[in-house]
Amino acid sequence: MSDTEPAGYAEDPLDAPVFAAADSATTGPAAVCRSVVKTYRTATETVTALDRVSLEIPRAQVTVVVGPSGSGKSSLLRLLACIDRPDAGEVLVAGRRVDGLNARARRRLRQQQVAYLFQRPGENLLPYLDATAQVQLAAQLRGARVGADQVRDLLERLGLGGRADHVPRQLSGGEQQRLAVACGVVGDPALVVADEPTAELDTAAAERVLAAMQELARGGVAFVLSSHDPRVMAIADGFVHLDHGERTPSPPTPRSARGGTL
Ligand SMILES: Nc1ncnc2c1ncn2[C@@H]1O[C@H](COP(=O)(O)OP(=O)(O)OP(=O)(O)O)[C@@H](O)[C@H]1O
């Protein structure tokens, strides 16, 4: 993505950590969208991927974004992860408005408050670092002081205690994705965003990754996942349904009896 910004987008005003005021950074929803519009312009047409979508992502919960192919799920996740910016509307992460920030400021906020997990487990990791070093680097980039004990504990919780000195090619796909989750949650970001996190995993590996996400969410971080996978829906505390770029009421889902619409 280019860092070149059209005029009018704000630099981060302070060259300091991008935390909002302590109260809104650590309380309230992890993220909020208000009447968000996202369009893509091609040579021949303008596609409206999101049309006035509003929602709140609660902390300490797993929110699953569902909808047919092309309904805008990835577009929404990219806005929440501060990778893209909406054409209109407001996006707040950890209480801070991010829609007006330029690429550099968004990148800094992302480092501290958001983790984005790619579908392919290997793409979330550096090939030459072992599991311990991956988590330490993620913490360092987030500006968090995390001791060796905490890294070891986190790897243990994710079932990677015996893999601490393994590099990604020595790990299975499921282990790689759990390591990516460890890197995502270390240093207490507000939000971990994952687009189709089980798409590349077999059933057993998917279930372990999802169980880890569900358990870690209880610690306070918000997980936002997009998926068509019933196993992902089964761990949802709430759903956001999209159709043709619009937020729609919840149709029946496998776990609609438990998860609410947020
Ligand atoms: N870079 C782009 N340029 C043009 N159109 C795009 C671009 N990215 C997405 N779109 C269009 O925006 C709409 C929403 O796409 P998006 O990828 O957000 O949907 P999705 O629900 O994640 O789909 P899927 O489940 O197939 O991954 C679609 O019509 C898509 O073709």
Automatic annotation (TrEMBL):
Keywords: ATP-binding, Nucleotide-binding. Signal peptide: none annotated. This is ATP-binding cassette domain-containing protein. Transmembrane segments: none annotated. InterPro entries: AAA+_ATPase (IPR003593), ABC_transporter-like_ATP-bd (IPR003439), ABC_transporter-like_CS (IPR017871), ABC_transpr_LolD-like (IPR015854), P-loop_NTPase (IPR027417). Residues 242-262 are annotated as: Disordered. Pfam families: ABC_tran. Residues 31-262 form the ABC transporter domain. One of its GO terms (molecular function) is ATP binding. It comes from Goekera deserti. The keyword Metal-binding does not apply. One of its GO terms (cellular component) is plasma membrane. The keyword Ubl conjugation does not apply.
